[in-house]
Design goal:
The protein is of the alpha/beta class. 40% of the residues lie in helices and 11% in strands. Helix 1 (10-17) packs across helix 13, helix 11 crosses helix 12 (298-313) and helix 14 crosses helix 18 (484-495).
């Protein structure tokens, strides 16, 4: 394929403008990225690999904006389980499910405003959040605690509150994953999910939070790589004109930016390929292509921009559609630049709002007598495989926080058929705190708890996923998420602080 991206003609600049790429695991911008910004790239995405501290991110974004002042800097910062800004430590904010459990829209708005303030202070002005999915399938492997809940109206009102809060800090939001990823049993990072319900169910359940997001003024909506036959029997939402243009733009009246979920996810890359998928997405009505979670090199940017240019020249993609998409990206850039917080905005910081929210989200179930722990326990983390959205870099659990309150606390991670017996052996005579994540989705985890509770009925159980399994143990704590502050709230309850 002929390389066209080195040119600076209008067509090539538009092709670069619609890409939102990441870059390899460095904390400063590589030369190729700075060069592409000069050639027309209008957005850059940051991932956990690019983050060591807020100060480092601020220096990085300043370096990027030295090349283009109105650059969009995007990040996938949901708070809770999905954090990039605090990828090494765990988030200072509980995720959506915890906020939904509290069901205080003022609190959700305040949490989002403070998270937005921190993003803005680091130079990030576009957040691929919040999840507006209604988690109607309890076995959903990728949404779960990322959703505000399974009740449509609750999800809608908290989606709107989150958007209002974050955009008040000058950070554009992107309600996701349109038209709703909550009723899936497959992770679109790995394969193509399919939702087989009627259009009436979708309208009454899944689309309601997106209507609320649009009414709240969300500057962007992110498409899902899911097949919804009631809306389009052939193409996934990201590639479907029926869904992105006819439904989202036409029926729902949305006029902001449409960004795709990661184009290199297997649901698209494994079925259509990233070049064809990119062209089809723009043709269907998407305006920006998220890429860089897995593919994050200059060659990927070149391949995708070349594919768009060649599609226009071959008559496969109308030039005016590409130009319209690029203009929507630039319009969002102008909004972000106009809403950039003034110096001194940090005076309104509410640094404790995340912890307060996590404490309010905690649900405690006591079976009989259960006094606070005064001796250091053994924390047995029954650890499932993390989904790609969450990743395995971010620490979770209660061991670190309990260790601060009860020095000498020990911990171990267990998985599989022998997890219960291995945890018992490792704990010895210590009191056991068993930490689980979505017990209802993992039979091996439920079996491990059976073993622990049969031998040690005084075991404390901390559920850090969706609390659908029946509470059990001498003390059962449901945190509604695995953020660092959720772990702290649980540790305080265990230790009686």
């Amino acid at each position: 394929m002929t390389t066209l991206a080195r040119a600076t003609d209008t067509l090539t600049r538009d092709a670069l403008a619609v890409l939102q790429p990441g870059f390899a695991g460095t904390t400063t911008a590589p030369d190729w990225l700075l060069r592409r910004i000069g050639e027309g790239l209008a957005s850059v995405a940051l991932f956990g690999r690019n983050v060591t501290s807020p100060e480092q991110v601020a220096a990085l974004t300043a370096q990027l904006r030295a090349e283009r002042e109105d650059l969009l800097v995007a990040i996938d910062e949901e708070g809770g389980d999905v954090t990039r800004l605090e990828v090494r430590t765990g988030s200072s904010f509980p995720g959506n499910h915890a906020l939904g459990a509290v069901d205080d829209v003022g609190l959700t708005r305040a949490v989002a405003a403070e998270l937005g303030r921190r993003l803005a202070a680091a130079g990030v002005n576009f957040n691929w959040a919040p999840s507006a999915d209604v988690n109607s399938n309890p076995d959903n492997p990728v949404i779960g605690v990322r959703a505000f809940g399974s009740d449509t109206d609750l999800v809608a009102r908290h989606t709107a509150a989150y958007i209002t809060g974050m955009q008040s800090a000058g950070v554009a939001t992107s309600a996701k994953h349109f038209p709703g990823h909550g009723d899936t049993g497959i992770d679109s990072h790995h394969a193509m999910p399919r939702i087989d319900v009627g259009a009436d169910v979708l309208a009454a359940r899944d689309l309601v939070p997106f209507r609320a997001a649009i009414a709240a003024g969300s500057r962007a909506v992110m498409s899902a790589h899911i097949l919804v036959p009631a809306l389009d029997p052939e193409l996934p939402a990201t590639l479907s004109r029926r869904i992105l243009t006819d439904l989202l733009r036409g029926e729902l009246g949305y006029d902001g930016l449409i960004v795709t979920d990661g184009i290199e996810m297997k649901a698209i890359a494994g079925t259509y390929g990233i070049e064809r998928g990119t062209v089809m997405a723009i043709a269907a009505g998407a305006d920006a292509i998220c890429v860089g979670g897995g593919l994050h090199d200059e060659g990927t940017v070149r391949r995708l921009s070349d594919a768009l240019v060649e599609a226009v020249r071959a008559g496969e993609l109308p030039e005016e559609r590409l130009a319209d998409a690029a203009e929507r990206v630039r319009s969002l850039s102008r909004w972000a630049a106009a809403n950039r917080p003034a110096d001194g905005a940090s005076d309104t910081a509410d640094g404790d709002v995340g912890l307060r929210a996590a404490r309010r989200a905690l649900r405690v179930t006591v079976a009989g007598e259960s006094a606070p722990l005064t001796e250091p326990p053994y924390v047995a983390a029954l650890t499932p495989v993390a989904n790609i959205a969450v990743g395995d870099e971010t620490p979770w659990g209660v061991a670190a926080e309990l260790g601060r309150l009860l020095p000498g606390t020990e911990t171990g991670s267990f998985n599989g058929a022998d997890a219960g017996r291995e945890a018992l052996a490792a704990a010895g005579s210590r009191r056991i705190v068993a930490v689980v994540r979505d017990e209802h989705r993992h039979p091996w985890m439920a079996a491990a708890l059976d073993v622990l509770l049969a031998a040690r009925p005084d075991t404390v159980v901390v559920e850090m996923g969706v609390p659908r399994a029946e509470p059990r143990g001498a003390l059962h704590l449901a945190t509604h998420g695995a953020a660092r502050v959720c772990g702290r709230a649980a540790a305080e309850a265990v230790a009686g602080v």
